[in-house]
Design brief:
Shape: globular
Helix content: under 10%
Structural class: mainly beta
Number of strands: 16
Largest sheet: 12 strands, antiparallel, barrel
Radius of gyration: 19 Å
Strand order of the largest sheet: 1-2-3-5-6-9-10-11-12-13-14-16
Distance between the termini: 44 Å
Order of helices and strands: EEEEEEEEEEEEHEEEE
Length: 270
């Protein structure tokens, strides 16, 4: 069975391309999802709530010396729910997990190989009684390798990383990739896949408030195998464009389930 999933932001698989010194990329995006089902451990259940998860996000990359790139992700979230049968409702607005990253080129030929490091900070907010969070209650360090290539019509890449989380959250493996094809002059159609698989038994969930089983927001031991389709249109060739994407999953654990849409605009500075 295929489920559409909620995420804090559009899935971004780390590519092997590194921006040249002084070049930059800035993207502003919005991800929205509504749901009344959640995956708790190995079961998908209805909650009785109409829940929503809305994320606005700034994403930026900047080329620095030594064939290295600095990246920044600043999410701001709006989460909440409403239950018409019993009249209960709650909402929470606040920052998500602030993210910093560095990526350096190891192989710079027709095919590219890069190594990166991402740090996600424990900068979210929480309402325990309502089961609402705007981010993981943990700091995460994720080193990764990424490899790929391109020609005039196609590009592809894959990445492999290890996410180490504190505060009792389970560590995990991350594997992701993209394949994109130019379908018209300024249009690309992109297929995305991502796997997150826990490799340790976290302890955070043992003492987590039961209210978070109703929202499944940033629970311990999140796991999923996701698939996505993204359309990319450059209205100023090689400088500015927009994306629209949809994501689904064949395997889910400890996440919310519902229809998700992501839209963004971007600008390159070369």
């Amino acid at each position: 069975m295929l489920y559409l999933l909620t995420f804090s932001a559009a899935i971004v698989a780390q590519s092997p391309w590194v921006r040249s010194k002084g070049n930059a990329y800035v993207q502003v995006g919005l991800s929205t999802v509504t749901y009344n089902m959640v995956s708790i451990d190995k079961q998908v259940v209805e909650t009785g709530n109409f829940s929503y998860d809305l994320t606005s996000q700034l994403y930026a990359e900047y080329g620095i010396p030594w064939k290295t790139e600095f990246s920044l992700v600043v999410p701001y979230k709006f989460v909440g729910y409403d239950n018409s049968s019993n009249g209960s409702n709650a909402n929470l607005n606040g920052a998500g997990n602030l993210q910093f990253g560095l990526k350096s080129t190891l192989l710079d030929k027709q095919n590219k190989l890069s190594v990166g490091l991402i740090a996600n900070l424990n900068t979210g907010k929480q309402l325990s009684l309502s089961g609402l969070r705007t981010g993981f209650k943990a700091n995460t360090i994720l080193p990764y390798l990424t490899y790929g290539g391109s020609n005039s019509k196609y590009y592809y890449f894959g990445m492999f990383g290890y996410g180490a989380m504190d505060n009792g959250y389970a560590d995990y493996l991350k594997m992701a990739g993209e394949i994109g094809k130019q379908i018209k002059k300024d249009w690309f159609l992109i297929f995305i896949v991502e796997l997150r698989k826990s490799i340790s038994s976290g302890t955070f969930g043992l003492n987590d408030d039961v209210s978070f089983s109703k929202t499944a927001l940033y629970r311990d031991n999140q796991q999923f195998l996701t698939f996505g389709i993204k359309a990319n249109y450059e209205f100023i060739p090689s400088l500015a464009g927009a994306t629209l994407s949809f994501f689904g999953a064949a395997y889910v654990r400890n996440v919310a389930a519902g229809p998700a849409v992501n839209i963004s605009i971007y600008r390159k500075f070369n």
